[in-house]
TrEMBL record:
Sequence ranges of Acidic residues compositional bias: 116-131
Compositionally skewed regions (Low complexity) per UniProt: 141-152
Protein name per the record: Uncharacterized protein
Region (Disordered): 103-159
Amino acid sequence: MNVQHHYQLLLRREMGQLINTARSYYREADRQVTQVDQLRALVTQKDEIIAARDETILHREDQINESDHIITQRNTIIEFLQEQIHDLILEADDAQAHLEELQQQPIPPAAPAVLEAEEEDPEEIEGVSEIDSEHGDPVISPHHSSSASQSSVGNFDDF
């Protein structure tokens, strides 16, 4: 019996060690399962964050595309307005040059002479009497030649 008892003792001790080892493995496996579950939860959480960031990125890309479209439209408008401004500047330059050209041209002497003649009394004109100016064409004085009587309107050199 001694052998059997010794066998029983060894068996119990080995079984205890085996149970302790199994429990240790179980605890380690349970700890690793808990870690895996925590990591899965963390991965799921990170996936949700990534999905939210992807959505934000897509939204911002849409905003960027809209902004690019608006910028392109505004650039087109700006180019059109710049062309119009350029055309207007050219027209203004042409108008300014035309004005300068008109200002540099001499004023015809006939225009002021007409104003002066209207201010004069009919008696002051040589060879024309008061009666002639009231009743029709003026009588040409004998001082004038026949070619001078063919004068044009506004030419007072004949008088």
